[in-house]
Design brief:
globular; 3 helices; Rossmann fold; alpha/beta; 143 residues
């Protein structure tokens, strides 16, 4: 199933993500695609809020992974911008999070595309002009 959402503010982008979060279960993987500044981290902030996490999500560009708790299960937020190969991803010990006890949200997920599970939810974000207007495509697998 593919759905499209157009948002006009960061708050609306976070709200769209929070609505998706209501359907997520432990083991869910959300692959985020989009250019720099497309709103990937903003979308993860909405996922975190929708899952009841107790801390606001921030970009894990330098840490590779942030973990958020407080809801019924954890949210693992990876940013693979600095990962140059699947080998680096594996060496960083991140593979276990793909089938873990929480939700895994991955920015720049295309860098590990062969490792993504079949049930991955793909979110494509695109900035429209100046400001906070975003076109968001959410592709959920038919299970």
């Amino acid at each position: 199933m593919i759905s499209h959402v157009r948002t006009n503010s960061a708050e609306q982008t976070r709200a769209a993500a929070a609505r998706l979060a209501e359907r997520l279960l432990p083991g869910s993987v959300v692959a985020l695609h989009g250019d720099l500044g497309a709103g990937k981290t903003c979308f993860v902030q909405g996922l975190a809020a929708g899952l009841g996490c107790d801390a606001p999500a921030t970009s894990p560009t330098f840490a590779l992974l942030h973990e958020y708790r407080g809801g019924p299960f954890p949210l693992y937020h990876a940013d693979l911008y600095r990962i140059e190969s699947i080998g680096e991803f594996l060496s960083a010990g991140l593979l276990d999070y793909l089938d873990g006890d929480g939700v895994m949200a991955i920015e720049w997920a295309e860098r590990i595309a062969p490792l993504l599970p079949q049930y991955t939810i793909h979110v494509r974000l695109r900035a429209e002009g100046a400001g906070d207007v975003r076109e968001i495509e959410i592709e959920e697998p038919d299970l």
